[in-house]
Amino acid sequence: MVATTDDVHAFLAALTQELQVPGRCQATHPVVEDIVAGRLSREQLRRWVAQQYLFSRTVPRLVCLRYGQVTDPEVQAHLMEVIAEELAGQQTGTESHVRLHARTALALGMTLEELEATPPNPETRALVYWQELVIRSRPWFIALGMKYGDEGQFAAAAARLAPALQQHYGLSADDVLFYSAHVEADAEHGRFYADIIRKYVATPALRAELRECVLTAAELWWDMWYAGAYRERARPV
User: Fold this and answer.
1) The pTM is what?
2) Rounded to an integer, what distance in angstroms lies between the CA atom of residue 197 and that of residue 7?
3) 137-153: b or e for each residue (b if 16 or more CB lie within 10 Å)?
4) Would you state the CATH architecture of domain 5-228?
């Protein structure tokens, strides 16, 4: 059975609602709330930013893996724009997102050597592994539609984080470009993922598969953020 426009609209509305609950919602994550209130210590903030940075390093590779699976030329063209933004900041007029993320960490007092040597938490590894597993084992439109649950949420969180990091932690506008640039870029990406869902996720079975992937991605992202800020120290090797 092929979905009607009303079916897909109702599915996206229900999915969006499911993403607003604690354990999935980025904009109201405890880390975001503590940064907005200025409660997160600078050490916690450094640890959180470092884990985010470790994930950011994997994003260009993951985007390229997704690109290799896509059969829709329009989607391929859009993903080329995403790759250009990730690697060079072409869309936002900035620079590589990995470098933008490193800029925040350096402004918080970390060295580049310290940042690169940070061991990923298990939650950070889990998010990366889940992303790659879905890319390699599910249809390409499921792998892209899944981003509705993590990257598709980030714009709302970033809009709260950028000014709070300046207000409470003494960072400059340049220091928080990773977050401010994503307010526009990820809002546009969220609409792109929604369009893919409308076009390709057309049956109840595909919608059930996508729902599982979206909610799992959101929960893993939530766990990565929580562990990054609130775990006192890395597990012993």
Assistant:
1) 0.91
2) 11
3) ebbbbbbbbbbbbbbbb
4) Up-down Bundle (1.20)
